[in-house]
Amino acid sequence: MAGLSTASPVETILDKENFTLEELLDEDEIIQECKALNGHLINFLREKNTVKQLIQYIVEEAPVDAEKQRTFKFPFIACEIFTCEVDIILKALVEDEELMDLLFSFLDPERPHGTLLAGYFSKVVVCLLLRKTTPLMNYIRAHPDIINRLIDLIGITSIMEVLIRLIGADEHIYANYVDSMQWLEDMNVLEMIVDKFSSSDCPEVHANAAETLCAITRYAPPGLASKISSPSFIGRLFRHALEESRPKSVLVNLLSVCISLLDPKRLTSGTYYMYTRQISHGSSGAASPETVQGMLESLGNLLKLLDISSEDHVLLTTYGKLQPPLGKHRLKIIEFISVLVAVSSEVAEKELIRLGTVKRIFELFFEYPYNNFLHHHVEQIAISCLESKNPQFVEHLLRDCNLIGRILEAEKDSTLAVNTSRPTVPAEGRSAPRIGNIGHLTRIANKLVQLGNSNSLIQTILQENSDWVDWQTNVLLKRNAVENVFQWACGRPTALQDRTRDSDDDDYQDRDYDVAALANNLSQAFRYGIYSNDDIDEARGSLERDDEDVYFDDESAEVVISSLRLGDDQESSATVIASTSLEDTKGHEGVGGADDEDLADTATSDPVQQIPTLDDDASSKLSEGSRETETSGSDNPPEWVEWRETSGSLELPPTSDSSNTSSAAQKPPLPNGELELELEGQPDDVGPDKTVASPTYADAPADSSKTDGGGSPDSKNIDSVSSPSQSPEVAKANPSIGEVDSHAEMEDSSGPAECEQKN
Questions:
Q1: Cis omega (within 30 of 0) on the bond before 324?
Q2: Between the CA atoms of 705, 707, 712 and 714, what dihedral angle is there, to the nearest 10 degrees?
Q3: Would you say 518 and 532 are in contact if contact means Cβ atoms under 8 Å apart?
Q4: Fewest beta carbons less than 10 Å away: which of 119, 332, 368, 747?
Q5: What is the CA radius of gyration of the chain?
Q6: Phi and psi at residue 426, to the nearest 5°
Q7: How confident is the model over 402-452, as pLDDT tens digits?
Q8: What backbone phi and psi angles, to 5 degrees, belong to 247?
Q9: Which secondary structure element, helix H or strand E, spans residue 315, and what is its range?
Q10: What pLDDT score was predicted for residue 267?
Q11: CA nearest 362: which of 310, 398, 411, 312?
Q12: CA-CA distances (angstroms) from residue 505 to 345, 488, 500?
């Protein structure tokens, strides 16, 4: 019966005398009921035995022969119940030490640590950390071995997330619970994390340990941040990184930590992207001179790893072979140097010059012409060197490293050289491919030209090389012109006329049409469904929408119109007619008449009404006035333009001979202020498919009322012109209509062709 509601499945289970927790967890609506704070359900879930059983599902692996519900569904639902953040349930957990011991027993070394349950454990602990911060931190402070066990399991990403939040790399916790986090700064957390690089050979452990240290450099409290950036700690990092017996993943991930220390805003390539927002604490500025100095002490040993002469590893590729390949560790070293150069430390620049670091890196740039990762970092190094305020560093790049000569040499012979002693060798039996670093060389060359305009040293060195001047004039300028995407036509209709214009420029503001008006009317056109293929009822129904119910605003419409690249000739549009100014039509309100195949374009905002029409002779008399209005209107910018809808679809002007009087007459759009009247027609000529414009007088107010049938004007105006006996009076009031244009039909049939020719 109506008005009666049945109990939910959860309530049905709770009303039973003997029910189990498994029955509730198996019910699909339990999470919704929990979020809705179902009192009966919450009282059951807050009980200690219930909370204990929920935790057991999360921390204990299911038996091998257990059902899928016990293995997958019950642990998931148990985790979701805690993460619903029902305060009374979380309070029942965090205030009971026995239950907390059970929760953190998941970290015991003898337990299996599957990634599925580790994720559920992480979600519950993070929820407690956010909602019950002080009780949880007090519990962890009383059990410091929890931090050690978390670090031991740092190879599991979910455990790493818990560790990052616990050590203070979280905006919410640090800002509101400074006292609770202070004790962590006194622990040797950083040393325990760094020791994982020497005690484990697992790449996942190295990656997650480095990600944790990077999070500390960006978001940790000042105590931990200052400790990790100290020269002694950096020296410890490099000692682990340069140990020859360790895997290359140690070097790669520790260099990520050094990069984060030099540029805290630079995100590493790890999997933990939770903390990418701006915060008010932590180290967010540039690296300190002490940090840079600590890294320079190990720079010489680091550069020795860029030597490839001692390796004999060969990697086959589609273009040939690499002997040896560059390797991820060398690429990371070059990335580290690119960030070090960007710091703009004069001490670092002098050390780089002394060690010949930039020269060696550019040698690798040309030895590995298809490694775009390498090319990107080398380009950044070149730009940082050229923008340096140290003239010695700039001159070192241009003279000692012979940057200009290397660019010209690569441009002169842009194919891969067949030299078996080089690291990159082309495939045998095929023509040598083109080298793949020409694009980066072009950008470096353009940067040289740009900075040469403001730097006399760069300009002098460039002008000293006559080959550079010739190459810049004959090759670089032409290449830039060809590769300038802003000048590409991209298939635009007006590409031949506006080939030199940029689509992003604001040149449309200088045109002779009102973009704001066009934007407003385009918005109106979309609002009334002109461009849709819906049926007539849907189109007419769209007329009743609110003025605020639009598909896009005027700014969006302006962007659309400017992207269309409308030409200067506004007469080229076959569907839009510019109206005369409002001052010329102040005394009249023009209402055009058209059948279902015509589009009425007028200066008024009233919808077109469907009323009887006149004979074809009257329509031909209107063409001359319409043509004169268009001709005079093209001299001045139109006020605004509007599209109209009569039958729910876009209608175009007639394109064929309109001499057939048996069908609905095709008439040109009425200009503003013109009227169409019956001169010779009889009452019998008026049919249901013909329309006539309703005249209005200067002293009569404009009627903008709309009806449910599509917004026709007041019925009084219709009655005033529906009778043929009233037409002579109206004709007397408008004697200009008496003139007949003998070429009206010719204009109607040739109009589209002329528009196409103008376009």
A1: yes
A2: -50
A3: no
A4: 747
A5: 40
A6: -70, 160
A7: 999 999 999 999 999 988 889 999 998 889 899 999 999 999 999 999 999
A8: -65, 160
A9: strand 315-316
A10: 56
A11: 398
A12: 39, 14, 11
Q: What are phi and psi of 424, to 5 degrees?
A: -110, 120
Which pair of structure tokens corresponds to residue 654? Answer: 């007639």
According to the 3-state scheme, what is the secondary structure of 363-429? HHHHHCCCCHHHHHHHHHHHHHHHCCCCHHHHHHHHHHCCHHHHHHHHHHCCECCCCCCCCEEECCC
Give yes or no for a contact between 34 and 42, defined as CB atoms under 8 angstroms apart. Answer: yes
- Coil, strand or helix: which one is 244? coil
Q: Which residue has the tokens 């550079």?
A: 468
| Closest to 120 (Cα-Cα) out of 173, 170, 169, 60 | 60
CB 154 within 8 A of CB 160: yes
Closest CA to 448 of 376, 394, 393, 517: 394
Beta bridge partners of 426: 320
Name every residue whose Cβ is closer than 8 Å to that of residue 527 and which is 6 or more positions away in sequence.
Answer: 542, 545, 549, 550, 551
d(CA 639, CA 605): 14
Please list, in sequence order, all residues whose beta carbon lies within 8 angstroms of the beta carbon of residue 207, skipping any fewer than 6 positions away. Answer: 249, 253, 270, 271
Q: What order do you get walking across the sheet with 424-426 strand by strand?
A: 315-316, 320-322, 424-426
Q: Is the dihedral of CA 607, 612, 616, 622 positive or negative?
A: negative
Q: What is the enclosing helix (H) or strand (E) of 316?
A: strand 315-316
Residue 386 CA to residue 448 CA, distance in Å, equals: 8
- The tokens for 525 are 């056109």
The dihedral formed by the CA atoms of 619, 621, 622 and 627, expressed in degrees to the nearest 10: 130
DSSP sequence for 328-369: HHHHHHHHHHHHHHHT--HHHHHHHHHHTHHHHHHHHHHH-T
Contact criterion met (CB below 8 Å) for 608 and 644: yes
Nearest of 451, 445, 442 to residue 482 by alpha carbon: 442
Three state DSSP letters for 500-538: CCCCCCCHHHHCCCCHHHHHHHHHHHHHCCCCCCCCHHH
Question: Residue 3: what pLDDT?
Answer: 47
What digits encode the pLDDT tens for the residues 131-160?
998 899 889 989 989 999 999 999 999 999
DSSP state of 304: G
Residue 79 token pair: 């985790």
- Helix, strand, coil tally for the chain in percent (to 5): 55, 0, 45
Amino acid in position 587: G
Provide block-wise average pLDDT over 10 residues at a time, the chain (759 residues).
65 90 93 93 95 96 92 96 95 95 95 94 94 90 92 95 81 58 77 92 95 87 84 94 92 95 69 37 62 93 92 91 94 96 94 96 96 96 95 95 95 91 91 94 96 95 95 95 82 49 45 52 53 45 44 51 47 40 42 39 38 44 45 46 44 45 45 42 42 40 41 41 41 42 42 42
**Alpha-carbon distances of 486 from 334, 455, 477, 481, 482, rounded to whole Å:** 33, 28, 15, 10, 10
Angle between helices 74-83 and 87-94 (to 10 degrees): 100
Q: What was the pLDDT predicted at 265?
A: 75
In this predicted structure, what is the pLDDT of residue 20? Answer: 92
Which of these, 132, 115, 124, lies nearest to 83 by C-alpha position?
124
